[in-house]
Design brief:
The protein has about 120 residues and is an alpha+beta fold.
Length: about 120
């Protein structure tokens, strides 16, 4: 399952780069949590959570970013910003890139949720 998760993160990173954003860091880990992708979009920092589901019977991939997960992301982002140098005063947002299985076919569909939640 770890390899599958990595492949979705790779697809998300490719999508981010295709938008013209600069990826600053992937899999940022700290004592407060992990952020899958940190990117810069036109002098705005974007903290991106990547989620995937293989089965439609349970909550959607985006729906699995619950309040607890949001709080962990916000705390990890705050720690990242303390060491962000000249970017620490950039405006920030939290996006979710979710992959849910299609009704037919194997390939999961990418869904981008800009500003999925606020801090």
């Amino acid at each position: 399952m770890l390899a599958l998760g990595h492949s979705f993160e790779e697809r998300a990173a490719q999508w981010v780069q295709a938008q013209g954003w600069q990826i600053l860091q992937r899999n940022y880990r700290c004592k407060l949590g992990e952020i899958d992708i940190i990117a810069e979009d036109n002098q705005q920092l974007v903290f991106i959570e990547v989620r995937a589901r293989s089965n439609r019977r349970f909550a959607s991939a985006a729906g699995s970013v619950d309040r607890r997960k949001q709080q962990k992301l916000v705390r990890a982002a705050a720690l990242y910003l303390r060491n962000a140098g000249s970017r620490q005063n950039f405006p920030c947002r939290f996006d979710v890139i979710a992959f849910d299985p299609r009704q037919s076919g194997q390939d999961a569909e990418l869904q981008w949720i800009r500003s999925a939640f606020t801090a």
